[in-house]
């Protein structure tokens, strides 16, 4: 949990959680734990969408051949 | 006779001058069918142009041939532009061609069909080679003109749909002779430095000549070799280029490429909302199930009224006890009856009882005598009867 999940990873995990809850095969305590994790993921996914700001850069080949990022006009 | 005598060279040169002096022959356009087409190592092209009744030898020098945008093939109907002159060594006139154009369709159309057929045969368009696009790309590389409408269309649509994706623009020329190597180079560069997890390459609409870079074999091969999935977005809806065939996905326009590249944020919000509802419902269902189970347990008599439970058990115990007693009694009665019968039988069989009735037992040498033949006169025998035993000597035996 130390590395923040990408949006796609969060959504995948959320999908797993909901499917597991819908199968209903986990014990109650585990189900409630999953529900809590799911609620947190929904919250963090929503936050990712809310605060997303498009980054647009232009790429230039540097002197060493490696890419350099410049602001795109 | 003052007739003039030419050398062969002189005559051929004269004819050559004569033909070259005719302005109508210095630029002719001839329609015919290509045959016997040969490309020499020198780069010059040699061929014959013919119709049903006649043929014309033609040559196209490397400098002109290199400018051809399609590959001439035998049997093609073409118009050839050039001049008529003589090749003195052979004494033959021929057409020195400067350009060849396919009849009917344009040369670019023919070139397009030829490259398409060639790359299709090599498998560059195979569906099996097409890579799936990432559903939520983190970085999209856009390889197109930095100044055209295409790049702005792509940025605008992507910003509106999915602002989570970073856009990296690799500006290239998209028309002219420099365009194909620049586009191919940018595709390779993006792969080499793993700049993005999805590439969009293309340009806005234009004539077939304007879009031509995306029909270039070098661009097609760079797209094919790209490990990063590529969306091709060239021109408007009806324009289809070789790049479109090779790419993992074809977009009708650059804006459409942006729509294909990223999800729609409002749809994803709906998806999240749906997941929230589903997980809520799943947990509620689970809780309801548990509650129902609990209720059904609580309503069992054992839990609601312990007396009923104990009463039932006690009753069972009483039954069992009664059965036990009954079985034991029955058993004793049977045994008593057996004893009486047995005792009677025993009594009847007792030898003492028999002696009591007047019978006696005869013994000889300690053994019971059962037959008169077993004793001889003079034998000593014992006779046992009630009250004691007699020692006797046999006086005589009478057989009956």
Short structural description:
The complex is a heterodimer of chains A (73) and B (400). Chain A has helices at 7-23, 28-51; strands at residues 56-61, 67-71. Chain A is an alpha+beta fold and 73 residues long.
Descriptive notes:
The complex is a heterodimer of chains A (about 70) and B (about 400). Chain A has about 70 residues and is of the alpha+beta class. Chain A has helices spanning about 5-25, 30-50, and strands at about 55-60, 65-70. Chain A is elongated and about 60 Å long. Chain B has 13 helices and 14 strands. With about 400 residues, chain B is an alpha/beta fold.
Question: Which regions of chain A contain 5 or more consecutive residues with pLDDT less than 50?
Answer: none
Strand order of the largest sheet of chain A: 1-2
Q: Which H/E pattern describes the elements of chain B? A: HHEEEHEEHEHEHEHEHEHHHHHEEEE
Largest sheet of chain B: 5 strands, mixed, barrel
* Mean of pLDDT of chain A: 86
Structural class of chain A: alpha+beta
**% residues in beta strands of chain A:** 15-25%
Largest sheet of chain A: 2 strands, antiparallel
Keyword list:
heterodimer, A: 73 residues, alpha+beta, two-stranded antiparallel ribbon, 2 strands, elongated, B: alpha/beta, five-stranded mixed beta barrel, five-stranded parallel sheet, 13 helices, 14 strands
Q: Secondary-structure blueprint of this entry?
A:
The complex is a heterodimer of chains A (73) and B (400).
Chain A: H1 7-23, H2 28-51, E1 56-61, E2 67-71
Antiparallel strand pairs in A: 1-2
Chain B: H1 8-20, H2 23-26, E1 28-39, E2 45-50, E3 55-60, H3 62-65, E4 77-87, E5 92-102, H4 107-122, E6 139-144, H5 149-161, E7 166-171, H6 179-192, E8 198-203, H7 217-225, E9 230-234, H8 242-246, E10 249-251, H9 254-261, H10 265-298, H11 301-304, H12 306-349, H13 351-356, E11 361-364, E12 367-368, E13 380-385, E14 388-393
Parallel strand pairs in B: 3-5, 6-7, 6-8, 8-9, 9-10
Antiparallel strand pairs in B: 1-2, 1-4, 2-3, 4-5, 11-12, 11-13, 13-14
Helix pairs in contact in B: 5-9, 6-7
């Amino acid at each position: 949990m130390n590395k923040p999940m990408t949006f796609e990873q969060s959504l995948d995990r959320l999908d797993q959680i909901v499917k597991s809850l819908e199968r209903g095969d986990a014990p109650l305590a585990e189900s409630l734990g999953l529900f809590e994790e799911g609620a947190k993921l929904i919250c963090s996914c929503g936050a990712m969408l809310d605060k997303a700001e498009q980054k647009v850069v232009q790429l230039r080949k540097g002197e060493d051949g490696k890419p350099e990022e410049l602001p795109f006009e | 006779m003052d007739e003039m005598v030419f050398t062969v060279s002189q005559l051929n040169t004269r004819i050559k001058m004569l033909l070259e002096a005719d302005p109508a022959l210095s630029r002719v356009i001839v329609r015919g069918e290509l045959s016997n087409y040969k490309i020499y190592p020198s780069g010059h092209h040699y061929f014959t142009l013919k119709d049903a009744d006649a043929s014309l030898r033609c040559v196209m020098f490397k400098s002109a041939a290199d400018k051809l945008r399609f590959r001439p093939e035998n049997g093609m109907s073409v118009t050839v532009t050039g001049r008529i002159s003589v090749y003195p060594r052979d004494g033959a006139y021929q057409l020195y061609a400067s350009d060849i154009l396919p009849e009917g369709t344009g040369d670019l159309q023919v070139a397009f069909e030829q490259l398409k057929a060639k790359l299709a045969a090599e498998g560059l368009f195979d569906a099996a080679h097409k890579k799936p696009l990432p559903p939520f790309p983190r970085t999209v590389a856009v390889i197109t003109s930095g100044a055209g409408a295409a790049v702005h269309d792509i940025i605008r649509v992507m910003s509106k749909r999915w602002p989570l994706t970073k856009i990296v623009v690799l500006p290239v020329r998209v028309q002219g002779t420099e365009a194909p190597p620049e586009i191919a180079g940018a595709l390779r560069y993006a792969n080499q430095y793993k700049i993005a997890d999805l590439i969009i390459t293309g340009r806005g609409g234009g004539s077939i000549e304007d879009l031509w870079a995306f029909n270039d074999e070098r661009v097609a091969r760079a797209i094919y070799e790209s490990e990063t999935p590529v969306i091709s977005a060239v021109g408007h809806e009806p324009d289809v280029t070789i790049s479109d065939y090779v790419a993992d996905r074809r977009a009708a326009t650059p804006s459409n490429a942006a729509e294909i590249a990223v999800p729609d944020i409002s749809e994803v919000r709906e998806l999240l909302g749906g997941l929230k509802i589903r997980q809520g419902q799943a947990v509620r269902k689970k809780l309801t199930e548990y509650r129902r189970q609990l209720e059904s347990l609580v309503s069992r008599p054992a839990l609601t009224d312990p007396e009923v439970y104990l009463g039932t058990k006690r009753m069972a115990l009483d039954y069992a006890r009664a059965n036990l007693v009954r079985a034991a009694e029955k058993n004793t009665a049977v045994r008593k009856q057996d004893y009486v019968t047995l005792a009677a039988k025993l009594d009847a069989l007792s030898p003492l009882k028999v002696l009591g009735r007047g019978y006696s037992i005869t013994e000889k040498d300690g053994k019971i005598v059962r037959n008169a033949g077993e004793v001889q006169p003079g034998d000593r025998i014992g006779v046992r009867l009630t009250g004691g035993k007699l020692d006797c000597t046999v006086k005589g035996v009478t057989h009956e």
